[in-house]
Input
Amino acid sequence: MPPEDGGQRGTGEVAHFRALESLYRSAPINDLFRSEMEIVEAGLVRIRFDIDPAAFHAAGAAHGTLYFKMMDDAAFYACNSLVSDRFLLTTAFNLFFTRPLKEGPVTAEGRWISGRRRVFVGESRLLTGDGEEAGRGTGTFMRSRIPLSSLDGYRP
Output
């Protein structure tokens, strides 16, 4: 779906995308999990990050916390890219670990699957630097009563 403003920054859909990216960057949790999010288009998000040994469990691979955080964020923001007035809330998230994540670059890719009124369904996956899938997840997200405009980090 092309941006309604022809790709010009600062108006319409693209302004909403940039404001959501700002909101993502403003979340204190991202001080622990350094990453950069890009809303590619409505319903499609990519989060890029590096796995550091500080996030490893005792057996030397990334802890599941990192899988959940990045896949939830990617699917969540893919869905919230379609909602310009309210903050969504995760109501459920199922994930599957398909391979261990070691040190290096990873991309979480999130996509909106269905829903446009109250409940949204999104999916996400983690891709290693060499393109191998390391995890896959599906979540449901619900409109909250929290206006996006009331959140300090949401800056259109």
Helices lie at 12-26, 64-80. Residues 1-9 have pLDDT under 50 and may be disordered. Strands lie at 36-41, 44-51, 86-97, 104-114, 119-128, 133-147.
